[in-house]
Amino acid sequence: MSDxxxxxxxxxxxxLLRLEPPKHPLISVMDVKDMPDHKExxxxxxxxxxYIISLKDGVTGSMGYGRNTxxxxxxxxxxxxxxxxxxxxxxxxxxxxxGWMLIFHPDLIRSSELGANVDNYTFFSYEVNxxxxxxxxxxxxxxxxxxxxxxxxxxxxxxxxxxxxISNLELLMNYCTRYYDRQFxxxxxxxxxxxxxxxxxxxxxxxxxxxxxxxxxxVQYCGDELNMSPNYLSDLLKKETGxxxxxxxxxxxxxxxxxxxxxxxxxxxxxxYNLGFGYPQHFxxxxxxxxxxxxxxxxxxx
Length: 302
Description:
The protein is α+β, with helices and mostly antiparallel strands. The chain folds into 2 domains: 4-186, Sandwich (Jelly Rolls), CATH 2.60.120; 189-300, Arc Repressor Mutant, subunit A (Orthogonal Bundle). 48% of the residues lie in helices and 17% in strands. It has helices spanning 10-16, 113-117, 136-154, 161-186, 188-205, 210-214, 219-225, 230-241, 245-263, 268-275, 280-291, 295-300, and strands at 4-7, 27-31, 45-48, 51-56, 59-65, 68-72, 76-80, 85-93, 100-104, 132-133. The strands form 2 sheets. It has a 5-stranded mixed beta sheet with strand order 1-3-8-5-6. Strand 5 and strand 6 (68-72) form a beta hairpin. Helix 10 (268-275) packs across helix 11 (280-291). The chain is elongated.
């Protein structure tokens, strides 16, 4: 396994890719046709202290990202946040390639409203196989915004530059949020299959000794079992059902608790332990929050 090469700045990213120095120290847009072939880096692994938004259009190939290797195709957008690890792969670039990669340092947005809200753009934590696939019109829209950002930092920097760059960056992210919502919607049948798999996973979990061994199922555990990032799983469930993954898990736990409270004579502490709670008071607190009654009150009223 190769060592991880850390890229801490926009300038270092340009140096790695043998590009001219960046025109702005905190943000840059690179055209993929200007980048070297990934094969030149062998099996190198890279960790960037940067946000990345990229559109592969006219590019085919593969790359490693997180836990997966991904074969990307035209019209694919990929997002990553600082400290994600990439593995060099291979790529082939068509003569009329139009892909680009936008990178920016967290310092660019740190004191802005976008900086305070950037974690709400959960697609930065998706796995690469959960990429955004765009129509021709959508590709045109996001590329126009990116070119505005590029134009803004390429001209004379003035008192308005930072605000305009960040505003367009936020606009880009908002378009991507809209297009992900569209993607969730048009894949409804596929998503329903995933939701069914999620429900089966919870049923299987509580039909085993895992609650005692591992505790409550986590969104991370469920995502790993379904080969999805926890954020993508939670967002998918939210779009389809109105409830995120964590609340789905809690709902499943509460339903199991109700069945045990009414169908058995087990002490509340034993029920809590068998459901995966380390402490009965944590179970009682969650139950009362969700049901409006303590476990003892619920049992006595039925």
